[in-house]
């Protein structure tokens, strides 16, 4: 078992399965002590917490039919030794996962960072070629964000960033990719949509972003977003950089048209009208 939050969850097992009731009984015993020794429902169960630097990282259980006899002292001693090694191993895996997560996420928002996004977008585009279905990329840029920092300070600017992140998460589906590209610029990758459905998602996002006005620097410079939408077509051979550049250019056209709107990028290789 491995620690998840404040409890122990099954991680791996071998042999005859241990029923949920018996597992819960062993888990309850280990919550109060490092060792467990139970005889329940015709089963003999022993367990030991797996610690690393005093912290419980997980636990290991052994069980056998009571009719087969109890566990000898040699088995119990071996269990203690294995639990110690398991605690070290789980802690090392958790530390590796933590470091990997830090290398792929933006520290302020917890979204994917630019490098991780481009790596993942390259994989998504290759899969798009195999599945032969469209996808859209929304480039999101905050309007009048600098005014928030200038008037209210950088803490207020950070809160505005967090507010937009909450909106983006609320408007995203499982499987979408969200990234903070840098500063007040974000992107949202949505698979399975063409320009029409993608435009509807963009309009919903613009509507939700109306809530950002409450965080504006002043009434003359309302906080909001401008969007650029680029459709990724299977077979185009477009690179992640080209796709993002198309969506970025469309976003700047939305800003030039008065901010707070959406512009659709022309297909790859065509100049916008």
- In spatial order, strands of the major sheet run 7-8-6-9-10
Mean pLDDT: 88
| Number of contiguous helices | 7
Span of the ends, CA to CA: 60 Å
Radius of gyration, in Å, reads 27 Å
Concise summary:
By secondary structure, the protein is α+β, with helices and mostly antiparallel strands.
Explained architecture:
The protein has helices at residues 20-32, 73-104, 114-131, 145-152, 154-170, 195-208, 240-256, and strands at residues 2-4, 7-9, 35-40, 43-52, 55-65, 135-143, 177-182, 185-191, 224-232, 262-264. It is of the alpha+beta class. It has 2 domains: 2-104, no CATH class; 114-264, Reverse transcriptase/Diguanylate cyclase domain (Alpha-Beta Plaits, 2-Layer Sandwich), CATH 3.30.70.270. It has a 5-stranded mixed beta sheet with strand order 7-8-6-9-10, sandwiched between helices. The protein has a 3-stranded antiparallel beta sheet with strand order 3-4-5. A hairpin with a 2-residue loop joins strand 4 and strand 5. The longest helix is centred in the N-terminal third of the chain and has 32 residues, at 73-104. The chain is elongated and about 80 Å long.
State the main characteristics.
273 residues; alpha+beta; Alpha-Beta Plaits; 2 domains; 5-stranded mixed β-sheet; 3-stranded antiparallel β-sheet; 7 helices; 10 strands; 44% helix; elongated
Strands, helices and their partners?
Blueprint: E1 2-4, E2 7-9, H1 20-32, E3 35-40, E4 43-52, E5 55-65, H2 73-104, H3 114-131, E6 135-143, H4 145-152, H5 154-170, E7 177-182, E8 185-191, H6 195-208, E9 224-232, H7 240-256, E10 262-264
Parallel strand pairs: 9-10
Antiparallel strand pairs: 1-2, 3-4, 4-5, 6-8, 6-9, 7-8
Helix pairs in contact: 4-5
């Amino acid at each position: 078992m491995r620690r998840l939050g404040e409890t122990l969850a099954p991680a791996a097992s071998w042999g005859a399965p241990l029923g949920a009731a018996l597992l819960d009984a062993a888990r309850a015993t280990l919550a109060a002590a490092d060792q467990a020794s139970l005889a329940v429902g015709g089963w003999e169960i022993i367990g030991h917490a797996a610690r690393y630097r005093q912290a419980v990282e997980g636990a290991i259980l052994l069980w056998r039919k009571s009719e087969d006899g109890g566990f000898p002292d040699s088995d119990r001693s071996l269990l203690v030794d294995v639990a110690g090694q398991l605690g070290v191993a789980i802690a090392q895996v958790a530390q590796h996962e933590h470091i990997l997560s830090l290398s792929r996420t933006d520290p302020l928002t917890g979204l994917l960072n630019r490098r991780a996004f481009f790596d993942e977008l390259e994989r998504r585009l290759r899969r798009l070629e195999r599945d032969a279905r469209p996808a859209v990329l929304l480039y999101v840029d905050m309007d009048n964000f600098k005014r928030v920092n200038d008037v209210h300070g950088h803490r207020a600017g950070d809160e505005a960033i967090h507010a937009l992140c909450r909106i983006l998460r609320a408007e995203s589906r499982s499987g979408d990719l969200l990234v903070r590209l840098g500063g007040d610029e974000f992107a949202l990758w949505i698979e399975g949509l063409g320009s029409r459905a993608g435009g509807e998602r963009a309009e919903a996002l613009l509507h939700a972003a109306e809530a950002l006005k409450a965080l504006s620097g002043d009434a003359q410079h309302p906080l909001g977003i401008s969007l650029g939408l680029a459709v990724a077509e299977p077979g185009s051979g477009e690179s992640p950089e080209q796709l993002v550049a198309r969506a970025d250019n469309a976003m700047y056209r939305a800003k030039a048209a008065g901010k707070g709107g959406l512009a659709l990028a022309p297909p790859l290789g065509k100049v916008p009208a």
